[in-house]
Amino acid sequence: MIGQRTHYLTSHCFSVRHTAPRLRLQRARCSTVAPRCSSSSSSSSTSSRVHAEHVQHQHQRQQQLQQQQQHQACSRRQWLQAQAAAALALAAAGSVTLPSASHAAAAAAAAAASCELQTSSATGLKWCDVVVGDGALPIKSAFTKLNYTAKLASTGTVFDSTYQRKTPLVFKVGEHELIEALDVAVLGAEDIPPMQEGGKRYVVASPGRMQRQGTKSLLWVVGLSQALEEAGEMAEDGSPTSDLVFEVELLSKRRSRG
User: Fold this and answer.
1) For burial by CB atoms within 10 Å, which of 1, 4, 207, 246 has the most?
2) Which domain holds residue 244?
3) Where does the PPIase FKBP-type domain lie (predicted)?
4) What is the pTM assigned to this prediction?
């Protein structure tokens, strides 16, 4: 009996001695894992917060861009309306006078008679040189200065003229700022030689590509609309159904601004 009790106590003590270190090891592991789990949770929370802030920033940026675009569009419309109103007021007050249709038609006929019109197969533009210049050639995208008179071919009505304004036009040639026909008239094409400074060219643009308006065609949009309405040659979309005639004089070019 005593021997059995002694064996039991010995076995129990042995079990306790070997179990205690394992318990301490498990506690140490738990204490190590707990901060790691906490750190992982904190990192996930921080990442979510940063993502949410990024999304919010992007949304705010999009709203700002939309507001800026709306403001620019509104300002552009207001500016166009103001310019159109000013042009109409000048016309109504008689500050801007246009030649009569008969006088303009006679002038156009005289200019056309002084040279033989040729038709470009590449562009469809009709052209002839009234005066061949002897100056420098134009450079694409360079600021170029010229005088011109623009009119309807059917009636000879002048709808814009730098001669009347007494201010030559300065524009970036070849950048489609005004009308396709002017870019081609100055720079030339496959079968049209470029103009030279001092030259004068007579061009006729038919409805289509050569009449595509540019970004700065407001110079003549009011006068052109009035001339088309009077002649009954305006399409439903507001584009001309008549040929447009341009008498162009190339003046000294300006240095390119890059």
Assistant:
1) 246
2) 101-250
3) 141-254
4) 0.57
